[in-house]
TrEMBL record:
Pfam family, one: AAA_28
Protein name: AAA family ATPase
Every NadR/Ttd14 AAA domain range: 5-169
Highest rank taxon of the organism: Bacteria
Organism taxonomic ancestry: Bacteria, Pseudomonadati, Bacteroidota, Flavobacteriia, Flavobacteriales
InterPro entries tied to this protein: NadR/Ttd14_AAA_dom, P-loop_NTPase
């Protein structure tokens, strides 16, 4: 059986984690967002905001972690696995800040393809900041645009998840998962 790898992406504060948590509660296998882990690990090593201090190193760590998740997703005996952010997210954020990245970043995105991608649009009513989320809402909107461009660059047809309750968003995703 081939497990379908479905990414849930979107700018900061769009409700991705809440959706992933709800899908897990329903019994679906989900792989979590890893950027907070990378941020907290760097903080434990004395770097307050690795993404701001060394965006390329931060992005390399994310890319490797997400590539590991891609391969991990193939080890589950499930019809569907949901992944909180995918490989093209890394390039979208690098493009957002205007930093260059090595060719192998692009190669990884071209070589490792997901089956489906859902994108959550910016939603000011639910947006909040915290110690790992440094962007304001206007930046979150711009990041959304970069995410759309990055995924489209790698040939994905994005499915936009409507602004609705978590329950309705989960039902939308499940009814549109192929």
């Amino acid at each position: 059986m081939s497990t379908k790898k479905i990414v849930i992406t979107g700018g900061p504060g769009t409700g991705k984690t809440s959706l992933i948590d709800s899908l897990e509660e329903l019994g679906y296998t989900c792989l979590p967002e890893i950027s907070r882990q990378v941020t907290l690990q760097a903080r434990n090593e004395g770097v307050e905001q690795l993404f701001l201090t060394d965006p390329l190193l931060f992005s390399k760590k994310l890319l490797e972690g997400r590539k590991d998740q891609f391969f991990e997703s193939q080890t589950f005996d499930r019809d569907i696995i949901f992944i909180d952010r995918g490989l093209p997210d890394v390039l979208a954020y690098m493009d957002f800040i205007g930093d260059e990245y090595p060719q192998y970043f692009i190669d990884i995105c071209e070589e490792h393809k997901y089956d489906q991608v859902f994108i959550l649009p910016p939603w000011e009513a639910i947006y909040t900041s915290d110690s790992e989320r440094y962007e304001n809402f206007e930046q979150a909107v711009r990041i959304h645009d970069y995410l759309e461009a990055s995924y489209r660059k790698y040939g994905y047809d994005l499915i936009s998840v409507p602004l609705a309750s978590i329950k309705d968003r989960v039902e939308f995703i499940l009814s549109h998962s192929k």
